[in-house]
Amino acid sequence: MRDFPQELIDEILDQAAAQKSGFPGFSPGWSLKGKGVGTRGLVCRQWWPRSRMHLFSHVTLRPTTIQSFFDLVDTSQSPILTFIASLDLRFAPDPRFLDEGQRTRFRECCQLTNLWIYLPNLELPGTDTTEFYSSVQLHASSLGIVPSISWFSMNFESIPLSVAVGVVSAFPALHTLRVSGLELVRVVIPQPHPLSVRIHTLEFGVRGEGVDGFFSYLLSLPDPPLLRNVDLDVGRADPDGAVVHYLRKSGSIIQHLTLEEIPLETSCARLAIQYAINLQDLYLIGEVVPLLDFVAAVSSHKLATFRIYQILWAEDVTPNPWSEIEAVLTADSRFRGL
């Protein structure tokens, strides 16, 4: 095979890996890139180092695969831990996962920026939730020492608000925080845990109770993060609750706003749009009826993007008057930058 500069080979492999990368958590094994990236390393010795790096850049671990993964790390000639950029931890109801020595070894992951934690349904007979939540928080505290982690996602069905706050506050260098689940059980937090002031993006997709509890926590912080990008599920938000109070206080900072699960009747979504006076991008996802009310709620004169993803499953829903909406968007000075 003709020799090419190593820099060119690395660039080609980087581009190929980027095209093959998938969504976190949807591929079996440790790597989320599929088999293609790994087999490229068998072409020749020049391809091997870069292919190996991409093969282990995304790692998914479960309690059943921990030992075999570290056996591979210990026997490999490549520094696998230094390749990991995204780590996906899938907890099981059994609180035992990484032992202290294994948790410490992840400090070698100098490129680790993205961390996912998936928590199982604990509504099972014999599950000791106290021990489980203590284990989750212990893992978060150990991994929070890794200074390069800037993106964190936690997915669950139902957990106490205090546990969620304890986990997310363990990462002092976060830029992006993603919280998704069915329910946050509201509990009193005597002393608010400080949250990374670097956070500029919040994706909050809790669909049940406890939505206002998390935003009450944000309001209680003496030095809260300044959120420029907010993705919010407003389906259960109380128009008089902490979500709206937070948006009233900090809405002027928000530049990109996504509102999901918008029901037929809600004032929370309209208030969120109204308080975002410097909004540049607005996405509405849900039934979003009547749409004219949401258009009228826009107070920003900087809006550049306005996208609507409307659910049309209900037969009794009156369709939006699109001609009137178009007329408003065309004539109103607020929308000249669209």
TrEMBL record:
- What is the superkingdom listed in this entry's lineage? Eukaryota
What name does the UniProt record give this protein? Uncharacterized protein
Native organism is Mycena maculata
Lineage, opening ranks: Eukaryota, Fungi, Dikarya, Basidiomycota, Agaricomycotina
